[in-house]
Amino acid sequence: MSDADDAALAPILTKLAAARTRLIMERPFLGSLVMHLPLKAAPDWCRTTATDAKAFYFNPGFIDNLNLAQTQFVLAHEAMHCAMGHDHRRNGRIKRRWDVACEHAVNLVLIEDGMKPPLHGILADQNYMTLSAEEIYPMIPDDTPEESFDEHLFDDDSQTGSSSDPNDHPEDPEKGDAGGAGQSGETDPQDRDGGAGSASERPDPMTPSEREDLAEQWKNRLAAAAQAARQAGKLSQSMLRWVDDLLAPSLPWRALLARFFVVNQRDDYSWRRPSRREGDALLPRLSSDGLEVIAAIDTSGSISDEELREFVSELDALKGQVRARVTLLACDNQVDVNAPWEFEPWDTMQLPSELDGGGGTDFRPVFDWVEAENRSPNLLVYFTDAEGGFPKVAPNYPVIWLVKGKGQVPWGERVQLN
After folding, report:
1. pLDDT class for 160, splitting at 50, 70, 90?
2. Where are the beta strands (DSSP E) in 9-58?
3. Number of domains, the chain
4. Percent residues over pLDDT 70 in the chain
5. To the nearest 5 percent, what fractions of the chain are helix, strand and coil?
6. Are 93 and 232 contained in the same domain?
7. What's the pLDDT tens digit per position in 8-41?
8. Half-sphere exposure of 67 (CA within 13 A, CB side)
9. Is 193 helix (H, G, I), strand (E, B) or coil?
10. What is 69-136 written as a DSSP string?
């Protein structure tokens, strides 16, 4: 790229950087996802924007005609394709129809979240609101005239299930072939931190194994971004619903529970004076006070004994890794008379041989017990079907609901059991 090209590109990169910064400040969930896509100018082949889940490709002329809000939209649009896993979910469907279905799914989520799309070429049929790309796909005709404004570079049109011509791109710079999702490999750290480059050639399609690896990376990025935004109170209800629906069947509850434990682990540096036998130097040392965890199990009959044993076994493995002291409670519509059962980090945690239960479901007695005992846990984990009475006000400590079934929770972090 010549010096003149660099000079012409500079204000475009400034606009993109400003849009990313605004996203991070106003919508940290989307901003976090967008930062995983380094910016790549591609005027030779990209008419609008594109992604292969490794970079954000753009035509400088297209970006130049957008205002800042529209620029935020196209950045978020490409990141959402990646986070939604649209690349590996096609599964032999006709590429053109699949791309159109993905466009409707992404745009409807972003518009519902209050973002401003470009004025032309946006597919967002309100009849498809809350539907996934798989649910939208059968409603798209084989000969649909609809086209997305961007290009999806996850695979090429010669692969199974595609019927469109790879050279069949509209000449209108406001339109492309379709909108996309993920591939494989980590992005370059320099690019991920905000660097930009050029892409003179279209990136090669991914192999199936590469797509699978990158899809897993985007799942983890999605979960981490959602957790951080929730804790900051900056994840909208529309995004929250979409994230819960997408993560529920994708990430094992054990992995999500482990992540919550690690996030809440209380490791810090200690400046306490060492023993004289350790020498004269006063150096910081990593110390840990461990975690205080309350674990509650629903014994109303909706959770099987085998599932309860799996839950307790998983807690036993986790508590040793993060030095957690676990207090186990059992409750249907009242706390078990034999509770609590206390387990130190070195104790083997087992499900009690006899548990009261079989009545209705009420979650309030557990939280009343914690308050009456003057406990201040670092975390409360509740294993339940979420069908019962909840306290009206959330406690001042983190709560994770491991939910079997479709029950919803009014507050706390909901993790779907699968």
Report:
1. very low
2. 39-41, 49-51, 56-58
3. 2
4. 75
5. 40, 15, 50
6. yes
7. 889 999 999 999 999 999 998 999 999 999 999 9
8. 6
9. coil
10. HHHHHHHHHHHHHHHTTTTTT-TT--HHHHHHHHHHHHHHHHHHTT----SSS----GGGTT--HHHH
40 and 107 assigned to the same domain: yes
Range of the domain at 396: 289-416
* Tokens at 374, concatenated: 């003057």
Q: Is 401 helix (H, G, I), strand (E, B) or coil?
A: strand
Q: Which residues contact 264 (CB under 8 A, 6 or more apart)?
A: 291, 378, 379, 398
> Six-digit token pair at 241?
């619903």
Closest by CA to 100, choosing from 73, 130, 138, is 138
- Span 402-417, average pLDDT: 82
Same domain, 191 and 91: yes
Name 203's Cβ contacts closer than 8 Å, sequence gap at least 6: 52, 54, 55, 57, 153
User: Is 182 inside a domain boundary?
Assistant: yes
**Nearest Cα to 104, choosing from 31, 50, 19, 178?**
178
The answer to whether residue 383 sits within a structural domain is yes
Final residue of a domain: which of 222, 251, 280? 251
Give the pLDDT mean for 347-356: 83
Cα separation, 255 vs 95, in Å, equals 33
Report the CATH number that the domain containing residue 310 is assigned in CATH.
3.40.50.410
Quick: pLDDT tens for 226-268: 888 877 777 777 777 777 766 655 445 666 667 666 665 544 4
Does 324 share its domain with 200?
no
Q: Are residues 224 and 320 part of one domain?
A: no
Q: Do both 179 and 111 map to the same domain? A: yes
SS3 212: helix
In this structure, is residue 87 part of a structural domain?
A: yes
Check if the beta carbon of residue 214 is closer than 8 Å to that of residue 183: yes
Closest CA to 237 of 117, 108, 113: 113
- What type of residue is 365? P
Q: How far is CA 55 from the centre of its chain?
A: 18
Report if residue 270 sits inside a domain.
no
